[in-house]
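Subject: MOSC domain-containing protein

B.,
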Amino acid sequence: MSGIVVAVSSGPDHSMSKPNQPVIHLLAGLGVEGDAHLGRTVQHRSRVARDPTQPNLRQVHLIHGELLDELMAAGFAMTPGRMGENVTSRGVDLLGLASGTRLRLGARAVVEVTGLRNPCHQLNRLQPGLMAATLDRDAAGELVRKAGVMAIVLAGGDVRPQDRILVEPPPLPHRPLAPV
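Prediction pasted inline below.
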């Protein structure tokens, strides 16, 4: 399975949206250079308040561009980076990946998917109802979180729009993604 990077985004502030960039630089074990969520330990404010020594399993946030299409069709004003993602992709079923899947981004960067992004109420500050629009129920009535996946950086490198994404599943048995 492969896909493409549509946009890359980063920002030094703890704000919901991140401005698009021509390139982002991933640093092994840390995240996106210059991004507010860069670090070996957790950087999300609510998680820091609970336990600042937790490992940072949310170094890179990826959202599938297909979600943005779905949200725009529902009347939401969406652009890459608006929901705080670092990488907007197309052509990869991010939500269907197994925990531990590796994604090769561009020529050198490699990230490992750690889990699902748990949408929070801050999305409603962007546009009322956005949080609910990123949640759904499957046929069994289980909650489906659609707001992308989180990853850690295994190998650093530059990532740009139009870079290829190669998917490397982990060894069997696969574990489904859970919120991190």
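The chain has one domain: 2-168.

T.
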